[in-house]
Amino acid sequence: MESITVATIIDAETYSNLEFLAGNTSSSPSELATEAIRIYIEDQSWQIEAIKEGIKQAEAGNFASENKVRSVFSKWGVNV
Hints:
By secondary structure, this protein is mostly helical. The protein has one domain. Helices cover 66% and strands 0% of the residues. The chain contains three helices and no strands.
């Protein structure tokens, strides 16, 4: 995979924590930052896709029935 250098500014406390983690693992600060960015992007991308799908379903009129909503809430002890 091709690598591209990205420069960013982080606060001193975050950098200190990054150095601490790097010093206690077999990773460099750069490797940890790369992994953190990758995980963040995956997480945000998944959420965006789920939101888009929800909007698509709502626009198509696909909603849970009143009975289904009551059933799910009652499973958690909530009376609606």
